[in-house]
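Let us work through a complete example step by step.
Step 1: write down the sequence.
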Amino acid sequence: MTIDTEHFKAKLEEEKKLLEEEMSKIGRKNPDQPAIRRHQDLVEVLVSGTPQEAADTMRAHVACGMENTMSRLKPYFRIRKAFGRTYFRSEKRQKQQLVDPSAWN
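Step 2: predict the structure and record it as tokens.
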């Protein structure tokens, strides 16, 4: 069974154009930092690549995102393992924990 991907490519192009317009309204370019194009590159492959290229690129994108998320969460996992309790990121909640031990879990 062959799927006509042209319809989906057109939809992705429309969405890309809308996103670019919206982002240009709220985003700022920093001339000191090179642009990060991960999502633009992903959309380009989804729009103009083969279905296999799109699938491979999407899998790599999701894996990269998961790896990034896990690396950011590692310190919190270590704290929870060390103390066996919930750890709060906000200063307000951390102070509340110190004053009121029942705030733990």
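Step 3: interpret the result. The helical segments are 6-26, 38-48, 51-83, 91-99.
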